[in-house]
Amino acid sequence: MADGMQHVRTRSHSRAAGVVYLSYFADAVLGLILAKHKVSTGHLLNGLAPLLYATVTILLCRLFRPEQPRLALAAMLFSLAGCVNDEMHHLHYGAANLNSLVFFGPFCILLGVLILRSRFLPRWLGWPLIVAGIGWLAYLHPTVALHARVVIFPVGFLAEFELMLWLLIRGVDEAHWPAPER
After folding, report:
1. What is the structure's pLDDT at 155?
2. Could you give the CA distance from residue 34 to residue 170 in angstroms, rounded to a whole number?
3. Which of 14, 73, 76, 99 is deepest in the core (most CB within 10 A)?
């Protein structure tokens, strides 16, 4: 009975991560569109996006923590640093030229590695995240980023979008979920 409850919690947790991920995508896209058209709600939505992404980050970290605790923690810290930097920029307190993608690059790479090492998500979900993370690191060199962004943004968007869809639709493979620590 306890094993069945663990599977229900695991399925619920992975679905919750997918729902918050979807909320983040909807918020970010709608916020960008509204802000572009000078609608004040866009500014509010843009401020909410880093908070939603931080929530996704924590939920993802909790998914991977039983198998890879240190790697999951490192990924979470990079992402949370990016979220804080995004929110600081939104509030006009951010460092002048520090693009949050330099934090999200390592996060995506580590998340991809976590997926590759996991037994409860398909490995093919990890590779696009690693490629996206490497692309985000191009922002360390602004000239490269300027010319590569037409490729980097779609790759990054699709990599995270497919993970979000997988979590929403399929969830994790409970049969390969690590046994809970006692």
Report:
1. 93
2. 32
3. 14
Q: Which residues contact 124 (CB under 8 A, 6 or more apart)?
A: none
Write out 88-149 in H/E/C secondary structure.
HHHCCCCCCCCCCHHHHHHHHHHHHHHHHHCCCCCHHHHHHHHHHHHHHHHHHCHHHHHHHH
Task: Yes or no: say if 78 and 112 are a contact pair by the CB < 8 Å rule.
Answer: no
Two tokens at 158? 């699709």
b/e code 51-82 from CB counts within 10 Å (16+ = b): ebbbbbbebbbebbbbbbeebbebbbbbbbbb
| Contact between residue 35 and residue 42 where contact means Cβ atoms under 8 Å apart | yes
Instruction: Collapse the DSSP code of 66 into the 3-class scheme (helix H, G, I; strand E, B; otherwise coil) and give the result.
Output: coil
Residue 152 CA neighbour count, 13 Å, CB half: 19
pLDDT higher than 50, residue 61: yes
pLDDT band at 156 (very low <50, low <70, confident <90, very high): very high
Do residues 135 and 152 touch, judged by C-beta distance below 8 A? yes
CB 32 within 8 A of CB 46: yes
CB 23 within 8 A of CB 66: no
Is the pLDDT at 94 greater than 70, yes or no?
no
Residue 128 · residue 158 · CB < 8 Å: yes
